[in-house]
Write a structure and sequence with these properties.
This protein has 551 residues and is of the alpha/beta class. GO terms for molecular function: CoA-ligase activity.
């Protein structure tokens, strides 16, 4: 059965981004648009629009025209945010590049080549990787580098780079001109890469219509962002959801605060300093914030400005949801389901407790669940793969093939997510990624369920479960466990953990592959901190991960 939004469909603007943002942002000229959490530098809406147009004009003068592909490889700052918007005012195509400390040279070279960028925008934090890459791979020397920084910061790298300073372009004072624009459904605004949990990262192409559509669908649908909100960019503007939510905040007259630091260390202080009202975090961030609670005995008072906390990025388990609700209350909560291919898909209704469902679709989005083998629609309450149609959907992947294309001829996206629609509350419930499901004894199981049981033990810091091929069982559930300081890795602990799982689950869910102890930095992760279970399984089978099996 198809699940439609509880909200009426909205009209998606067809105007280009410079007109759309210009129309909305010009309504609040004197309000504060941006705040730097570290320096407390502030920019009003009128200053933002002026600065964005100035930068856009100089980038146009430097050769960036409509639909030119430009890699955005900047650490968060007010100028970086303005540069991103300037690219949109030039109708360029922005290729988001994840934080440099999370990329190896091999991964970076792959993305630069795959995206076929003509320009790279980098700064003092990212230029080393750009320099080393261009120096080693001669085919990349053609790329024009625009450096956002000082001459002295650029000097050590100039020999091997075709580089120009953004400040030099700005000094030319070239006025911005409205760019050539095609169709909002075909002009590509952003290319953002999948996290690579199930293979090589793929570049999802989002047209202008995706950006304007997402904004209108969220603003006119659930009550998520309100006029006057102060939104914290808690991770990085590499992440499409942070780009989208920060722009939506501005579209309704709010303020965007760039954290520019690891919020896991002092989240209550950041909220208090900037009077944050809305934030969204990933599970790994939430767990780290909860671990800092003893350092902030007055965290409730420090976070009293918080109106809404949102969660995204993985399947939420009940115990963790309750811990989140207790820590952040009395603010309100909403759980969000989104993906690289569509940005936000659904939100739970804003409420006093964190929900384990992901709510109902946004306007202009419909969802259905199909059998993974027959592709037939399944009844409510039955597990299957989620499919969706949306007005904020990507047009496809870069260089996609018949095998990699996941938008069917009739417009339905195969999400690769396993879940079901509850027959009573009509909410979407996620279980796991289809490709991460373990098939043991001809039954399917979700690693997340077993991981949550393992984390219940006080010795367990983190636990990851994967399916290891097994001649008789098909796949044997196998756990990789990181223990807390003060506990010892031994056979008694491993036996106890296996026993805990066995007591609470059916036989096919037992840890037939055993338990291995490992350091957390050995576990492969994607750019946004998600565990790459497939990489972990492959590395284990190839003997490429340091882990210890108790004797």
């Amino acid at each position: 059965m198809v699940l439609k939004s509880a909200f009426s469909d909205v009209t998606i603007p067809s105007e280009p981004l410079h007109e759309y943002f210009g129309r909305l942002w010009s309504r609040f000229p004197e309000r504060i648009a941006l705040i730097d959490n570290i320096t407390q530098e502030r920019l009003s809406y009128s200053e933002l629009l002026t600065y964005v147009k100035d930068i856009s004009g100089c980038l146009q003068h430097g050769g960036i025209a409509a639909q030119t592909r430009v890699q955005y490889f900047l650490k968060d700052s007010i100028i970086a945010f303005c540069v991103m918007q300037a690219l949109k005012f030039a109708n360029a195509t922005i290729v988001l590049c994840r934080p440099h400390q999370q990329m190896t040279t091999r991964e970076y070279v792959y993305q630069v080549r795959d995206s076929e960028v003509n320009f790279i925008l980098c700064d003092v934090d990212t230029i080393q990787l750009v320099h080393d890459t261009v120096k080693e791979y001669s085919d990349l020397k053609r790329i024009q580098i625009v450096f956002v920084g000082t001459p002295s910061e650029l000097d050590p790298f100039k020999e091997h780079l075709n580089a120009v300073l953004l400040d030099d372009l700005l000094r030319n004072g070239t006025p911005w001109t409205a760019p050539q624009c095609g169709n909002a459904a075909s002009d590509i605004a952003i290319i953002t890469y999948t996290s690579g949990t199930t293979g090589k990262p793929k570049g999802a192409k989002h047209p202008v219509k995706s950006m304007t559509g997402q904004s209108e669908m969220i603003v006119q649908g659930p009550e998520i962002f309100k006029e006057g909100d102060v939104y914290l960019v808690a991770t990085s503007l590499f992440y499409a959801f942070e780009v989208s939510f920060s722009e939506i905040t501005l579209n309704v007259g709010g303020t965007v605060v760039l954290a520019r630091t690891d919020i896991k260390l002092n989240f209550p202080e950041i909220v208090e300093r900037n009077r944050i009202t809305v934030a969204i975090i990933l599970e790994i961030t939430g767990r780290a914030i909860l671990a800092t609670a003893p350092k902030f005995p007055n965290h409730k008072e420090q976070m009293k400005s918080l109106r809404l906390m949102m969660f995204c990025g993985s399947v939420l388990q009940p115990k963790f949801a309750n811990l989140m609700s207790d820590f952040f209350s009395p603010c309100l909560f909403s759980n969000n389901y989104g993906m690289t291919e569509n940005f936000a898909v659904s939100f739970t209704a804003v409420g006093q407790y964190m929900s384990c469902s992901v709510g109902q679709p946004l306007p202009n989005i419909v969802v259905r669940v199909v059998d993974m083998n027959t592709r037939d629609e399944v009844p409510d309450g039955t597990l299957g793969e989620l499919m969706l149609k949306s007005d904020s959907l990507m047009t496809g992947y870069l260089h996609e093939t018949k095998d990699s294309r996941n938008i069917e001829a009739d417009g339905w996206l195969r999400t690769g997510d396993l879940g079901y629609i509850d027959a009573v509350d009509r909410c979407i419930h996620l279980v796991d990624r289809c490709k991460q499901i373990i098939i043991c004894m001809d039954d399917t199981l979700s690693p997340g369920e077993l991981e949550e049981i393992l984390r219940e033990h006080p010795a367990v810091e983190q636990a990851i479960v994967v399916g290891i091929p097994h001649e008789e069982l098909g796949e044997a559930p196998t756990a990789f466990v990181t223990i807390r300081a003060g506990f010892q890795e031994n056979s008694a602990l491993a036996s106890k953990l296996k026993e805990n799982v066995a007591k609470l689950t059916s036989t096919y869910k037992h840890l037939h592959g055993g338990i291995y102890f490992c350091d957390w930095d050995q576990v492969p992760k994607t750019g946004n901190g998600k565990i790459s279970r497939l990489s972990l399984r492959d590395k284990f089978m190839n003997g490429e991960i340091e882990c210890r099996r108790p004797q």
